[in-house]
Amino acid sequence: MTGPEPAALEAADAAVRVVPEAIEAGVLYVVSTPIGHLGDISLRALAVLQGVDRVLCEDTRHARTLLARYGVRTPTSALHEHNEARSVAQIVAALQSGASMALISDAGTPLVSDPGERLVRAVVDAGARVVPVPGASAALAALVGGGIPAHPSTILGFLPRKGGERTAMIAWACRCPHAVVVYESPARLAHTLSDLAAVAGAEREAVVARELTKRFEEFRRGTLGQLAAYYTDTPPRGEIVIVLSAAPPAEAPTDADLRLEARALRDEGAAPRAVMDALMARHGIARNLAYKLAHDT
Ligand code: SAM
Q1: Best label site of 208, 240, 270, 275, fewest CB within 10 Å?
Q2: φ, ψ for residue 101 (rounded to 5)?
Q3: Which residue has the CA at smallest separation from atom 8 of ligand 1?
Q4: Is the beta carbon of 40 within 6 A of some atom in ligand 1?
């Protein structure tokens, strides 16, 4: 992690003391933390983390490093994907009896491909207040620095690893008429870029944003074909976000076009199931129409 200079730490510490946040009883604060550069935390976030009764964190050891850096000594508890379901009732009860809590994740904004959704839902359902304390998110940083039109856009998070769910999600992303943000691991980057290229076409523009806010921050821009080739040859390190540009407006294919395409796929040796998947991925047509085309031709 990159960190702020000692003078900046002192200034932040002083600001927290000078501008304390009025912490409300019974409130769950959802607090964003840095995605790399430790300076990317707001004064309000620090004041909230300092003022609440307890900080709920994805990984208590990881959180303590961040909290210690700013002299925050609030007690912590773990809230992660493995205990969220069973911890929620207890947390809601504590809030209802007047405790104040902050939820943080390991990096960035909780609930964005991170735990917290169940808890926030339960707190809302119980009629208690949820107060966001916004800040860093890798998705927004990638959109802002990537150079691909960012509005509107969809934050997809991680793609399913394999199977029909992955195929369907990639098809959806490639058809999207606006930018789509995908989180990916370095080991799977080249594979995912190739999968996207196979559906969106190798010429579709994209950006790979790597190590955002950190020392080796990099934006690599190009077509999916170029990026897939580059990262196949040059395996990347670090944390990665892909921003896929919008699908160009497509003219809807006629029934005759679809029948011809299905027949061509069958002639190439594709099984009906593969024909169906290809037609749905390319044109977003309904499953029953794709089934009919794949079997009737
Ligand atoms: N909640 C986080 C947020 O708001 O950005 C995202 C959490 S998700 C579990 C972690 C993924 O976010 C990483 O695998 C990577 O894809 C992306 N990510 C997080 N930090 C990043 C960074 N500094 N640079 C690029 N991508 C990052």
Answers
A1: 270
A2: -140, 155
A3: 113
A4: no
**C-alpha span between 117 and 205 (Å, rounded):** 32
**Predicted TM-score (pTM) of this structure:** 0.84
- pLDDT tens per residue across span 77-136: 999 989 988 899 999 999 999 999 999 999 999 999 999 999 999 999 999 999 999 999
Helix axes 163-175, 189-200, angle to 10 degrees: 60
241 lines ligand 1 (CB under 6 A): yes
Q: Is 35 in the pocket of ligand 1 (CB under 6 A)?
A: yes
| Distance between Cα 247 and ligand 1 center (Å) | 24
Homologous superfamily of domain range 27-136: Tetrapyrrole methylase, N-terminal domain (3.40.1010.10)
The atom number, within ligand 1, closest to the CA of 158 reads 16
Dist. CA 125–CA 102, nearest whole Å: 18
- Residues 250-260 have pLDDT tens digits of 777 888 889 98
Low-confidence ranges of the chain (pLDDT < 50): none
3-state secondary structure of 133: strand
Decide: 222 and 197 in contact? Cβ < 8 Å: no
Q: Ligand 1: does its nearest atom lie under 6 Å from the Cβ of 74?
A: no
- Answer CATH for 139-244 from 2.102.10.10, 3.30.950.10, 3.40.50.10750, 3.60.15.10: 3.30.950.10
**From the CB of 114, is ligand 1 less than 6 Å away?**
yes
pLDDT of amino acid 11: 60
